[in-house]
């Protein structure tokens, strides 16, 4: 496999060095775009209309265009920075009471708390929060909670301090999961075309994963969202993602081919669940629980 993948990657590395890839802080732009694009396809008519009305003008009527907004606001809204993730001590579990806080110990300041926060804000017409911002935050954070390394380990900042080589390029474990796996997949399998990758994932949702898909949407929790469950899944997947990875590890085909199916499924789940949350919020049937 390496022989097939490597020459292409060399071209990619040179191109990337010339283009200087932008730094990303969450699923890269592509990951968030795909989650939201998939969600758009699962919205009820009612929810799609409500979402359109809330979108800012610059979105051109497309939720997916706004799904990286929260990353660009991270420095202006410094308080929002811890809302992108929920790291754990490394026991492969997410425990809200233990793990959902910022570095000052402020409760609820993590990605799960944020999903609950913005879901509540959108459901409550008397909420003082800007509903357009609430929608854009919610769409972003539902994506983030599905990225395994956003529920990574506290001690290495969700893999950010684990420096690795992605094939021949310097990266870190967090960035591998945010960006590199998707980038490599786009180059190797999807002709650099995000819409082709989205199509392939959607095909799996209606075919390969059609029976599981209903369960992804199901939310029997008494809390408003099932974000706890999504974080729990990510914390488990994160433990696998760390396996065999050390400082300066070189990650290539073996790692890529193990990670890609996980990444594609998490994007699918993120999209389906974002739609389910928005459908619940805007369907006028807010207590609906499955
Ligand atoms: C809830 O949303 C408001 C408005 O954006 C923000 O100030 C607050 O920090 C958020 N809290 C959580 C836990 O997300
Ligand atoms: C489709 O599903 C199969 C089986 O789960 C998986 O290996 C593959 O990566 C998936 N492809 C996409 C594009 O999601």
Automatic annotation (TrEMBL):
EC number of the protein: 3.1.30.1
UniProt keyword annotations, A-Z: Disulfide bond, Endonuclease, Glycoprotein, Hydrolase, Metal-binding, Nuclease, Signal
Domain of life: Eukaryota
Enzyme class: hydrolase
Cross-referenced SUPFAM superfamilies: Phospholipase C/P1 nuclease
Catalytic activity line of the entry: Endonucleolytic cleavage to 5'-phosphomononucleotide and 5'-phosphooligonucleotide end-products
Signal peptide positions on this chain: 1-26
CDD domains: S1-P1_nuclease
Alphabetical GO biological process terms: DNA catabolic process
Entry-linked Pfam families: S1-P1_nuclease
Cell division is among the record's keywords: no
Recorded GO MF terms: metal ion binding; nucleic acid binding; RNA endonuclease activity; single-stranded DNA endodeoxyribonuclease activity
Record bears the keyword Glycoprotein: yes
Family: Belongs to the nuclease type I family.
Protein name as it appears in the record: Aspergillus nuclease S1
């Amino acid at each position: 496999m390496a022989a097939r993948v490597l020459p292409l990657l060399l071209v990619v590395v040179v191109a990337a060095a010339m283009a200087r890839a932008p730094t990303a802080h969450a699923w890269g732009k592509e990951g968030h775009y795909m989650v939201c694009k998939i969600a758009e396809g699962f919205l009820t008519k009612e929810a799609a209309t409500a979402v359109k009305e809330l979108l800012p003008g610059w979105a051109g009527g497309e939720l997916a265009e706004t799904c990286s907004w929260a990353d660009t606001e991270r420095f202006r809204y410094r308080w929002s920075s811890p809302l992108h993730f929920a790291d754990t001590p490394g026991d492969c579990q997410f425990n809200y009471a233990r793990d959902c806080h910022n570095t000052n110990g402020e409760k609820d300041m993590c990605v799960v708390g944020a999903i609950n926060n913005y879901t509540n804000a959108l459901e409550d017409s008397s909420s003082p929060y800007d509903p357009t911002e609430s929608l854009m935050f919610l769409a972003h954070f539902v994506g983030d909670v599905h990225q395994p390394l956003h529920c990574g380990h506290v001690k290495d900042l969700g893999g950010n301090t684990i420096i690795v080589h992605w094939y021949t390029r310097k990266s870190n474990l967090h960035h591998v999961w945010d960006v590199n796996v998707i980038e490599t997949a786009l180059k190797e399998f999807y002709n650099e075309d995000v819409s082709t990758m989205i199509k392939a994932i959607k095909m799996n949702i209606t075919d390969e994963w059609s029976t599981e898909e209903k369960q992804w949407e199901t939310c029997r929790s008494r809390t408003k969202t099932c974000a706890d469950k999504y974080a729990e899944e990510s914390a488990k997947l994160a433990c696998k993602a760390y396996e065999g990875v050390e400082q300066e590890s070189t990650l290539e085909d073996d790692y890529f081919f193990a990670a890609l199916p996980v990444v594609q499924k998490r994007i699918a789940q993120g999209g389906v669940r974002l739609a389910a949350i928005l459908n619940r919020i805007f369907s006028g049937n807010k207590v609906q629980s499955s």
